[in-house]
Amino acid sequence: MVGRGRGWHGHGRGFGGRGGWQQADLPSADDAAGWFTGRLPDGWFTGTPSVTVDRDEILVVGTLEPPTVADSGGGPDPVAVSAAEAGRISRFREDTRDERIAIAQEAEHRYGRKVAWGAVAGGTRQLFTTLSAPVMTRLRQPERQVLDTLVDAGVARSRSEALAWCVRLVGEHAETWLTELREAMGAVDRVRAQGPDVAAADEPEATES
């Protein structure tokens, strides 16, 4: 699923400068999934890769052909299967490194966002060097107490880690609602982009002669 992009006025700072793209100048990434589908070499993945986008990063995750593990009777050893899948992902990561860097540079120039990669083989999923973006916020005492409780209980090592834990928890338990919200926002963006039919509205009414 592709997240919402922002309108690009074409005169903003480049992504490589201090602070990266300014939010008002951030290019739209509405076509990112299609662009990556067309740009990635044939044979990398068994199907269309998953492409997710936010204001900071584009994450591309593709599915690899799972390895075949010998069956010594009673089914393949789960430990051996997991190791083989991790090895398959590691091989893909190393074999495609240079080409992935080149594709990421193209995408960063096009969309003004960093690119991260991941792969799935069987039941194993790994992400490669994903971006960790700082998010500043102000919390009142009740919210701070929630974070401090998580820290005191050993769930998190710091308030920032506790906040990230809370965000992950909400994401896991509210995915359906978040998906509906993103779809609704996408519909609003499309309507806003179409705009009203101003020309038709400005036409004078016909009068009888």
- The value of Rg in angstroms is 23 Å
Chain oligomer state: single chain
Structural class: alpha+beta
Mean pLDDT: 81
Order of helices and strands: HEEHHEEHHHH
Name the features.
alpha+beta, four-stranded mixed sheet, 7 helices, 11% strand
Concise description?
This protein is α+β, with helices and mostly antiparallel strands and 209 residues long.
What does this structure look like?
The protein has about 210 residues and is α+β, with helices and mostly antiparallel strands. The chain folds into 2 domains: about 130 residues, no CATH class; about 70 residues, no CATH class. It has 7 helices and 4 strands, in the order αββααββαααα. It has a 4-stranded mixed beta sheet with strand order 1-2-3-4. Helix 4 crosses helix 5. The longest helix has 20 residues. The chain is globular, with a radius of gyration of 23 Å.
Compile the SSE list and pairings.
Blueprint: H1 32-39, E1 50-53, E2 57-63, H2 78-95, H3 97-111, E3 114-121, E4 124-128, H4 141-152, H5 159-173, H6 175-194, H7 198-202
Parallel strand pairs: 2-3
Antiparallel strand pairs: 1-2, 3-4
Helix pairs in contact: 4-5
